[in-house]
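User: Structure with pyridoxal-5'-phosphate, tokens only please.
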Amino acid sequence: MSRRPVLKTELPGPVAAGLISRSDRAISTSYTRDHPLVAERGEGVWIIDPDGNEFLDMSAGIAVTSTGHCHPRVVAAIQEQAAKLIHMSGTDFYYPVQGRLAHRLVGMQPVRGEGCRVYFGNSGAEANEAAMKLARWATGRKHFVAFLDSFHGRTYGAMSLTASKARQREGFGPFLPVTHTVYPDPYRMGERATAMAMEHLETLFRTICPPSDVAAIFVEPVQGEGGYIVPPADFLPALRALCDAHGILLVFDEVQAGMGRTGKMFAHDHFDVQPDILTLAKGIASGLPISATLASENIMKWKPGSHASTFGGNPVACAAANATLDLLQESLVQNAAEVGAKMMDMLRVAVGDHPNVGDIRGLGLMIGVELVVDKQGRGRAADLRNAVVMDCFHRSGMVILGAGQNTVRFCPALTLTEQEAATAVELFATSLNALAPV
Ligand SMILES: Cc1ncc(COP(=O)(O)O)c(C=O)c1O
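Assistant:
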């Protein structure tokens, strides 16, 4: 019989409750821990807590553990590298494992132009910081454009790009100069989504944001934290053309959507458009902290010392990334495409007709279900979404996350089997139907 979550206690159980209250007394108050989940062990898409409860993890540590928790080949690569060399700072010295990873990434040539180089950081925010600095340096321009509801990180530059939740900016300004524009949401804007988004951007260029001042436009090819929104097929090509017309660099932030999650190695492969700069993190190393900023040789020629990080591209993280890339290329990108498509079908069958389900969308294993007050008015059912996320956890032992104001997201490990997808859909439908009976 296929594996299912096992709840032996109320959640949190007694051991977890003790650990949570101890942790809460010492950890920064800025964390948002909605789930009282203490992860003690992980295997594949399963999490085991210290009370022996077993959870189906459809969050993958926020779209990070792409090969599943503790994939044996990733664990072996980490152990082997840790026994050889843990750190030597790639800013000043060489080590083989970093060169190998760099060549594999640039060999995919995921950016436009001649040749490719990669800068390694430790987080998605750092990858975007590097992209901002590089874009300024390469263009001599100071300004940026990003999209409302986008998320690019919480360091100062990345936070200036981020326009996801006011809480993330409240009290922290002033920011870097970023003008925010509208992302095309096919569910809410219909067939004119691309036209509306491009018209808005051109209005900004005509009025308050001279394009000749803009170094780069940052965009998520599939908007992640904003609600798992897949733009219309003509949007990224239109943005590419507009950037080219004004000498603006186009940056794709694929921190969440990249590395096979959408069923292709890079999300932009779905749209046949290449960026000038690409940022990657999250799923690249199955949970070890590493990020990558890629650009053509012509753009990434900043001076020695102009940008670097002590830990960026650390040997152990590089080894984990190399093992992750092996697994993605062997089968997991393909699995994300196949199981993702099947899971979308299963969701449509299970909850597509539910009056509070407005939209089921996604690419590969980046799937969003938008909950609405009713199908006609499309009012955002934020409370219902939050309640469903919590109910899945407490009733069934399934970990899912919200995205945007009223969307549930499924971003599991790319190892997800059809059977595990079926279990996730069943548990989600159970919670939705219990909280919003038809
Ligand atoms: C698209 C995108 N960019 C950047 C980030 C920031 O990544 P990190 O939290 O590693 O700094 C995130 C995190 O959710 C993200 O989804």
